[in-house]
Amino acid sequence: MELFGFSVLFLSKLFFAAFNGILFTQSGLDKVFHYQGNLDYFKDHFKKSPLASTVGLLMPVITLLETSAGLASLLGLLLLLSGNDAGSTVAASGMGLGSISLICLFFGQRVARDYAGAATLVPYFLMTMAGFVLYAA
Hey, what's the torsion of the CAs at 57, 63, 64, 67, to 10 degrees? Predict the structure, then answer.
């Protein structure tokens, strides 16, 4: 089946890469450009959890994971649009990094007993995993 002259499969890959790229690039760059504010928020959020003493160490890790996931997804999108065969592999890498990021965030929310916050991550995780499966097919 085609839509706008492209296969629905190809369009799905583009849309997943675009969504993932926007989601994780914005989130990662927000942490880069507003590092202290985010660090203060996370320190307060996790102050009563077993992760309290590790926030300073984990913040750069999640920032790098999110930014890498977003940029890989956007690069994959551009490569797909240009017809480069590596586009699917690069975009799939973005989906994989995004999934790892969300698992880390989900773990942190659960450990902090922020169950509502953890629940808000589930749709993003499902979307990212659906994209990951789509690229693997």
Answer: 180
Model's pTM, two decimal places? Answer: 0.90
Which residue carries 């995993």 as its tokens?
A: 129
| pLDDT single digits (tens) 18-64 | 999 999 999 999 999 999 999 999 999 888 889 888 888 999 999 99
Tokens of 86: 């590596």
Which of 136, 130, 67 minimizes the C-alpha distance to 101? Answer: 67
Q: Where are the domains of the chain?
A: 6-136
The neighbour count for residue 91, using CB atoms within 10 Å, is 30
Q: 40 Cβ partners below 8 Å, 6+ apart?
A: none
